[in-house]
Amino acid sequence: MRLKKIGSGLLAIMLAVTIAAPSQSFGAGKLTDTAGHWAESYINTAVNKGIITGYQDKTFLPDKAVTRAEFATMINKALGNGSSASIGFADVPYYEWYYDAVSKAVSASYAGGYDDNTFKPNNPITRQEAAVMISRIVPAYKVSGNLKSYSDYKTIADWAYDAMARMNGKGYIGAYSDGKIHPTDPLTRAQTAKIICDILDNETIVTSSPVIDDDGTKLSNKIYVNNVTIDEDLGDDSATIDNCVILGNLNVKGGGEDTITINNSRVSNVTVDKDDSAVRILAKGETSIAKLSASESSILQTASLSGGFFGPGFSNITINSSAEVTLKGSFPLVNINGSKANVILDSGTITTLNVTGSGKYSNITASGSTTISQATVNSESYFHGTGTITKMNVNADGITYETKPKSWTIASRVDTPKEADAVLSVTFSPKNKATDVKLDTKITITFGSAMKLRNGSSISNSDISDFITIRKSSTSGSKVSFSATINSAKKEITITPSSNLSENTRYYVIIEDNTLKDSDGNTNDEQSIYFNTGTATSAFTTTYSPANGATGISINPSINITFSESVVRYSNGNTISTNDSYLKECIVFRKDSASGTEVPYSVSISSAKKITITPNSSLEANKKYYVAVLGSRFKTSSNGTAVAASSATWTVGVSAPSLSNFSLSALDTSITASFNPNVAGKVYLVAIPVPASGSVGTPSVTQIKNGKTSTDQTAAASQNTTVTASTSKSVTFSNLDTETSYKFFAVLEDSQGNPSSIQSDTAKTTSLNLKTLSIRPNGGSNILSSSFSSTNYSYTDISVPNGTSYVDVNAVANREAFVGEVTINNTVGNSLQVDLQGSPGSRTARIEVKIQEIGKSPRLYTVTVKELGSTKLQSVTINGNPYTIGSNYEIAADTSDVSLMLTPEDSSAILTMSGQQLQWNQPIPLSLSDTTNMNPSVTFTVRTADGRSTQDHVIRFKRTTPTP
């Protein structure tokens, strides 16, 4: 049996766009066929803007279908899309007019090709295909129309449903006059004009290439057609991209571990190339980053991704030579494409990891309980850590591992990978040999696992100077004084030199030999790196403590304003003394706002950089306070740059405990509760089965803490866990009953015993099975659409129409994410084309769909399909004369008796008339006694031998009068 995969073909349809031959440009007033058309105003606008053109005969042909090439051209013109990519579609040669349009569409990642490496530029685009494409161009977070209001909503393909709902909600795809949405109709030129005009009217489209260099910058609700740059002047600060679409390239050259957040947005391409310290890029919610190329140091992280078409996160990551990349979260595809890369999977999973032939000598660390589902290794590389590698394809010599893969396939003449001792992974920032490092840089050292002192003691901040040294100019040069901290995970050390480093100077950072050990007991070797400073400091900053927007501040706070470099008087450049009365001319401290009541205070300055404000008496609880530095009061001592005005507003009071982002995630026998506490303390949780009535009483705080229900019965399960402020946490309840709904109640109690409000949510444990199974004869409609049930595992003798040569099979699991695979007839994947076998009219196929989670028994669905026999006629003979099937069967006007003979396509079929069985290829006498009836007819019934298909055939005679 010949099997052919079709899954990626469906994806190609979803991603692809449509186009057609170019036409002569005319003004809208010269078009001859648009007057009075329902879309006349939209057509006129689109034509006058040069987005859509007319034809050489001055027609527009508004109801003509739009081709894939035409559609890409129109979208590119409407948006001003100027990016391009290298393409190699077999049917898009470089000399064709549409090559440039397709190249731009592919670069912006809203268009793609098919499995056979074609683009099909001259094929029409359907309305649902266009909706998918448009959904990749416009921001549409939390937008959804009610498709069920259209009677034909069930004809929308599964892969297009969400996109259709969003574009319907945005108003870009609507109903016809018949009230239906017609998803499979070709999109017309008139409809395209309306869609494009609506997008231009309703969306904010940015064609410039903005540069982000201010801390806290947020881009929201816009389409960026060209490039966006996170500038190096942002330093280690943060920026946010929210509900945006970037069709060009997002260049990340700045930002720090305070994060570049990409939330509910789509980005075509990201290039990460920050050359001093690591930048963290966080993908959240409905975020899709089609391609990312990482150089230098970076942290790529996912959180609360929605998954699916709109929220896959980082779809395709390429890691270049000598890059140091830390991954946290879920990553479908990671390619190591450069030598000596250092990749750390700190948490989560990589579905597919490819080490290319250019990725030799790279180090890959899978920490803790992380998983790499499949690694294909094509060059010498080294795998570290205790994480799981489910399968490895070994295609090169010199591969080593710390934790052996669960399975591997070793290519011919390739050495078996060897076990190697655990390596203590250490990453520095600035990285080794970095240049032009800022004079006020902080140095970070990140370990691959939690660290302890060699004697097993926990590392404290005061211990760090015992094993780390910074030296100037050489490894034996003068020591550099610094302060240092280690984070609570004991994996990252941050070093702050006591004063700015010298210009154009080399500095060495040294970790002494045999002073530390990791969680596996491995001690460290001596390690050192060096970097070279430049001449500049980071961008000047003014930092407030308490920070702007802070709440729960003490009534006797420590109030500080810290400048990133020393300042002097603006007027004359004089130094400001510790208790200079001039400071009160520069500082504002008021209740409520800038115009509120003044607060009495004293003020001082230290090191010409830090201003300390001390209130004369305790502040009022639950009251806002405003602190500000006035403009043109200070300037930098280094270059005389004026210090800009700035301010912060914060609130005194005690923060009441609260839980946010409480959510549940269910598997077959377990449910995980996730939440974010605002204060440190302990979270208590109970799980209670939901009865048939659907009602579960809310237990009290005390009952939750004691693991009880509202009626003081013991809950089905209960747990408690210690939490830290503003740190998300998850708790998993295992060994629950499957196919059972549980209601969870949670409460946070702070260290003083103050409880939060009770949070609750309901989830159902669900066995892994198929959500949908579709069988489409010759790629047509799904014949299982009404009969499929996820708990029915066998479908026998499913009839397919006569002439069916193959069926398209598509299977979708009821859980979006699970560790395992779906196979169709032993081929891994969700989609497969299966050919029917046997003679025409009786062909059959057996389909076996298996869904299996790793470590559990598979679930098997079987379907047998059988082709219906033919009920068609092959020939008709009247009075010995052969006739073409379906023609007018002419007889003389006075003919009353006819001899009819019928021949079938299927000789086993049964022929009847008026319930009486007749013989094929035998004369059938008919009496047409009423010669006044000029068009008599007679009805025959053809039934297949198995009785599964029946067709009526009407033989209509036509009496003709002889020519005189």
Automatic annotation (TrEMBL):
> Does DNA-binding count among this protein's keywords?
no
Query: InterPro entries annotated for this entry?
Result: Cell_Envelope_Struct_Comp, Cu-Rt/internalin_Ig-like, SbsA_Ig, SLH_dom
Enumerate the UniProt keywords alphabetically.
Repeat, Signal
The answer to keyword Lipoprotein applying to this record is no
Q: Which domain of life is it from?
A: Bacteria
Q: Which residues form the SLH domain?
A: 26-89, 90-148, 149-210
Q: Name one Pfam family in it.
A: Big_5
Protein name in UniProt: S-layer homology domain-containing protein
Q: Which organism is it from?
A: Sinanaerobacter chloroacetimidivorans
